[in-house]
Amino acid sequence: MKRFLSLSLAALLILGLAAFTTIHGQSAKPSAKDAAAAKEVEALERQRFEAQVKKDYAFLEKVFADDLVYTHSNGKQNGKPDYIQSIRDGKSQYDKIDVEALNVRAYNDGKAAVVNGTITITLPNKPDGTPNIAHLKYVVVQIKDPKKGWQVVLWQSQKQPDAKS
């Protein structure tokens, strides 16, 4: 509960900063620090997806915050240890993750970022041998820890219908 409350407060703070900027008519153009942070976070997002496919546990341990809340598209939630263990155990398997769209907005002089996008995940084939593909929209909140760097504190995804549906 404490973890959920702190993540909720972090998300509200980020949204509040965005609203404050809009309400007070400040420039919609990001600061130089925010623009640089957005580029850094975008690169890290792509590296994280690659690490999930390659099972690079050292990288995942570094980029997921200890208080991570990871909500899968089926509604199941994991914390950092449980999610990483699910990859180790083969419960979360990714053959390929293709980034279809990626949008990063950084706030607070490059100390927080909200990411949203769409991805296509190729999973191991279904038992009948047919391809198993998931199309997801997702949102990520990342916070820049002064000692640990950028860390994912929140992941939320939603399954999208197949393109042919």
UniProtKB/TrEMBL annotation:
UniProt KW Lipid metabolism keyword: no
Residues covered by the DUF4440 domain: 41-152
Signal peptide interval: 1-25
UniProt-recorded name of the protein: Nuclear transport factor 2 family protein
Keywords annotated in UniProt: Signal
InterPro entries assigned to the protein according to its UniProt record, in alphabetical order: DUF4440 (IPR027843), NTF2-like_dom_sf (IPR032710)
Annotated SUPFAM superfamilies: NTF2-like
Domain of life per record: Bacteria
Record Pfam families: DUF4440
